[in-house]
Amino acid sequence: MNVNQSAPPGPPYGQPQPVYPGYHQSSYGGQPGSTVPPTPYGASYNGPVPGYQQAPPPGVSRAPPSSGAPPVSTAQAPGGQAAYGQFGQGDVQNGPSSTVQMQRHPGSQPFGSAPLAPVVSQPTVLQSYGPPPTNTQVTAQLAGMQISGAPAPAPPPTGLGYGPPTTLASASGSFPNSGLYGSYPQGHAPPLSLAQGHPGTQPPQHSALPQASSFTPPASGGPRMPSMTGALLPGQGFRGPPVNQPNHVSSPPPQALPLGTQMTGPPGPLPPMHSSQPGYQLQQNGSFGPVRDPQPNYGSPYPGAPTFGSQPGPPQPLPPKRLDPDAIPSPIQVIEDDRNNRGSEPFVTGVRGQVPPLVTTNFLVKDQGNASPRYIRCTSYNIPCTSDMAKQAQVPLAAVIKPLARLPPEEASPYVVDHGESGPLRCNRCKAYMCPFMQFIEGGRRFQCCFCSCINDVPPQYFQHLDHTGKRVDAYDRPELSLGSYEFLATVDYCKNNKFPSPPAFIFMIDVSYNAIRSGLVRLLCEELKSLLDFLPREGGAEESAIRVGFVTYNKVLHFYNVKSSLAQPQMMVVSDVADMFVPLLDGFLVNVNESRTVITSLLDQIPEMFADTRETETVFAPVIQAGMEALKAAECAGKLFLFHTSLPIAEAPGKLKNRDDRKLINTDKEKTLFQPQTGTYQTLAKECVAQGCCVDLFLFPNQYVDVATLSVVPQLTGGSVYKYACFQVENDQERFLSDLCRDVQKVVGFDAVMRVRTSTGIRAVDFFGAFYMSNTTDVELAGLDVDKTVTVEFKHDDRLNEESGALLQCALLYTSCAGQRRLRIHNLALNCCTQLADLYRNCETDTLINYMAKFAYRGVLNSPVKTVRDNLITQCAQILACYRKNCASPSSAGQLILPECMKLLPVYLNCVLKSDVLQPGAEVTTDDRAYVRQLVTSMDVAETNVFFYPRLLPLTKSPIDSTTEPPAVRASEERLSNGDIYLLENGLNLFLWVGASVQQGVVQSLFSVSSFSHITSGLSVLPVLDNPLSKKVRVLIDSLRAQRSRYMKLIVVKQEDKLEMLFKHFLVEDKSLSGGASYVDFLCHMHKEIRQLLS
Ligand SMILES: [Zn+2]
Questions:
Q1: Is residue 265 within 8 Å of residue 287, measured between CB atoms?
Q2: Which stretches of sequence are listed as region Disordered (predicted)?
Q3: 807 alpha carbon – ligand 1 mean position (Å)
């Protein structure tokens, strides 16, 4: 067996390893350039992951730092228990301090008896956990109308109340008593960067414990509620003024209509906001809260507000009758807190059920037996033991899995294990792969499966003795016995037709109809391909890519090219019978780039010329995909098609489409048809593609409706990507297109893949979301799976779970690497199980929850009216929070909204999903835009959905000019904007630079090289390169933001009060949206009302 990973000399893996050079870029797992299995793997197994090396040598204590116990399951009595039993207490290393403690608390009830009858059980919970205010309770009496001082004067002890506080403090070091993303303990100064968005008054959040957030919405039960409801119900009027999506909509939006009147804020005795901006229309949110300087923390706090950053003092009551936006949970604050609390130490995966740091926190991961959160994130790391509990809580149990995720250079990619001809060791019954949770028994001769409890024989060649704890003595020499993630070399049994695969191929298929030629696309693309072909993905240290390439051009007929190296010139073959597509040549169609370079270059030079005078406007589409797929089939390989397409395929051919865009369907029961494909042709075609391992990436350049919902079917079902450049013009869009193209072509991809998620008894995977195809209920088939693609998996109970043994997930991905090697990538994750609902709520991850809920809703629009989908989301959210309130929160006034600490952002984020373009489009969001976004979100990981739904807004001139760190973000609301400042806003797809009207002239000069605000070109997409610190800083920041995202974000400069500002405001998601989406404050009030209804 071997692992060819770079190996630091010496233990713990015992053998030296070949170093390997270029993992982190575009190779799989950092394997060296082994191309032919299995020979290259003969030599050296071994090689610990860097993080791994830091563990003590075997036998000493490979355990999670704070306990002496081994990270991997050890011998407890066979019987499937045990594994992590010994980590129960005090074993917390940079994990959520509360987790483990609570589970082990003596007060927790025996399995099965507890939590289901709320009235009975909850008091028990509370009693056993001590006095309410200290733990589950109210951390903050964020009274909207009145901040009640409850916790502040008498801050609870620093512990969480589940035991001696000291335990926690010592266990978690740097964040003594905070909860997961909690607020500050008493006497803990808020980090400097926290400022914005932090409650301007001193809500007890500062001083209280973080288990829950509560506040009293204004006029609870009072007059405001009805109006809230009216405003929030989807589909009731509010076809507001258009809202645009700059990157997929071409024309600037019309002016705003007057704001809807239903969204009544409290009639304000409020001074107008932004009085310094004449003509600046007051936004809805202005009605809430006292008038403030947009950036309270940056100076001039509003009258009466305490200074930011000061120690929490006694709360300062606000004027009544208003819900202060500063007093409701702030995404910015939560993100900052987590960065400060959890960004400094590595996340070590040895402890079961640890909630990882947020996706917005930079942290390193050390694999000690569970998969890194870069590969798997869960909605909760402590799942209810019974389905009754799960139903009561309504918290979806889901995992967001990114099997081939990129890792930072500091983290080693999964080791490749070679078990030789016998292949990976698996459970005979459930077929789970060998993993750290398997229990070896009978002196090592047998092992009990941790998933199905089946007892299996250990094959002689795999036998090893056990130590006195029952652990194999070679456990730390074998990745599959000690790590959460690793790969197995697959044997021929895992290959199609019992034959090792050939290296994959890329086929470039270029629309050469009139629009494509006229826009300059074809010339640009052909020029770019000449150099891009040198950067095809390659394995490890391979000198050249094993991927072969082929070329097709098309309009309503297809042109194939023979680019065989022996030819002096490329040869074209035309296929006009698009109804019965075949590939006219085999030899010379798919070639090695280096061998055929001259011919390829010649072809790419000729294509733009050949079609320069074309008058052909019609295109076909399905036959193009068919041709590519047939070519791969003929070559007996998997691969990827890169399609560059401009128009609705109306030419006579299979898959011909008609324009069926009809905006009148919006808000009707037929709206769902806009998201459904208009013909079944593409599903059928996709199925054939999947069978061939043919993944399709689609680049669209539409000037009008092209029916993205139908064209994206094949990419969607084959694990491909869709890119859309509306009204493409070379001068405006080439940077974005070329950047996306380069990244897409170079991306590491696994081909012809099948993913299976196994679970231990008690739960099973029941639903899947993402870009893939399923022909049965368990196997996720992916013609291609790249490093950015995510699959979200939902689990349901099919039996009781056990607190002791927890729940296990194993994701196995079988795929063909870029070099044609067949591999299995395994990710394992152990979760805790609970009999107390409070434990569930304490270990949730809201960002992951939102990822799941958005995908669920976005799929729902295919079958249900959009309004129903929205209403269901709201109901589910209310049920989740009501269940918490009823079962886990201490008794308190009905007027208080109490949110679990881990879910305090659920309302604000959910509101962003509700008013997203798919679920509540503005008038200028096209049908294609909605289908496009819907498709994109389906494959997003948690970090991407997080920033997509709640954009980052970064002030540029407030932080020191020489500061190299990203400026702290501010909340996405207009009232946070200062007209004397400049901001960047990004959501992973769009990037704006907003310039306030009163920005200093020097700043304008430094950034734009013009003399005044009025001279700045609105809509500018490139900043001039100027030699001054501010210009450099802003350009560096923009580059860094782009580098963090999987797609290129085109910059749009927006001037305050300019017409383009409407685009920008669409992303200020805490405000009421022009399409009728509620403001955060209003939504929170509405949510509170829903919760109260459920409770009464
Ligand atoms: Zn099994």
A1: yes
A2: 1-117, 147-329
A3: 14
Q: Is the peptide bond before 955 cis (omega within 30 degrees of 0)?
A: no
State the distance from the centre of ligand 1 to the C-alpha of 448, rounded, in angstroms: 8
Which pLDDT score, from 0 to 100, does residue 767 have? 97
Contact 349/370 with Cβ under 8 angstroms? yes
pTM summary value: 0.76
Question: DSSP per residue over 804-863, as a string?
Answer: TT-EEEEEEEEEE-TTS-EEEEEEEEEEEEESSHHHHHHTB-HHHHHHHHHHHHHHHTTT
Distance (angstroms) between ligand 1 centre and the Cα of 433 equals: 8
CA 431 to ligand 1 centroid distance, Å:
6
426 Cα–ligand 1 center, Å: 8
Residue 475 CA, ligand 1 centroid: distance in Å: 20
CB atoms near residue 614 (< 10 Å): 16
Structure tokens that stand for 917 in this block: 């373009």
Cα 81 to middle of ligand 1, angstroms: 14
Question: What is the crossing angle of helices 1080-1095 and 866-887, to 10°?
Answer: 60
Distance from residue 462's CA to the centre of ligand 1 (Å): 18
- The predicted-structure confidence for 814-853, as pLDDT tens digits, reads as follows 999 999 999 999 999 999 999 999 999 999 999 999 999 9
Expressed in angstroms and rounded, the spacing between residue 456 Cα and the centre of ligand 1 is 9
Per-residue tokens: 263: 């969204």
pLDDT digits 0-9 by tens, 359-406 = 999 999 999 999 999 999 999 999 999 999 999 999 999 999 999 999
Residue closest to 763 by CA, chosen among 377, 379, 370, 383: 383
* SS3 readout for 851-872: HHHHHHHHHHCCCCCHHHHHHH
How close is the Cα of 809 to the center of ligand 1, in Å? 12
Alpha carbons within 13 angstroms on the beta-carbon side of residue 980 total 9
Residue 912 in tokens: 């962003």
Residue 429 phi, psi dihedral angles, 5° rounding: -85, -60
CA distance 880 to 874: 10
Q: What is the largest CA-CA distance in the chain?
A: 86
Neighbours of ion ligand 1 (CB under 5 A): 427, 429-430, 432, 449, 451-452, 454
Q: What is the 3-state secondary structure (H, E, C) of 195-249?
A: CCCCCCCCCHHHCCCCCEEEEECCCCCCCHHHHHHHHHCCCCCCCCCCCCCCCCC
Q: How far is the CA of 452 from the centre of ligand 1 (A)?
A: 4
CB atoms within 10 A of CB 45: 23
Q: What Å distances lie between residue 260 and 18, 238, 264, 871, CA to CA?
A: 66, 7, 9, 20
672 token code pair? 């769902």
Please report, for residues 519, 617, 828, the alpha-carbon distance to residue 511 in angstroms, rounded to integers and kept in the order given: 12, 10, 44
- Contact criterion met (CB below 8 Å) for 560 and 766: no
CA–centroid distance, 451 to ligand 1, in Å, is: 5
Distance 192 CA to ligand 1 centre (A): 51
Rg (CA), the chain: 29
Quick check: 610 pLDDT over 60? yes
Q: H/E element holding 716? A: helix 713-717
3-state secondary structure of 1038: helix
> Are the C-beta atoms of residues 40 and 34 closer than 8 Å to each other?
yes
Q: What distance in angstroms lies between residue 434's CA and the mean position of ligand 1's atoms?
A: 10
pLDDT greater than 70 at residue 718: yes
Ligand 1 centre and the CA of 349: distance in Å?
A: 23
* 3-class SS of residue 1090: helix
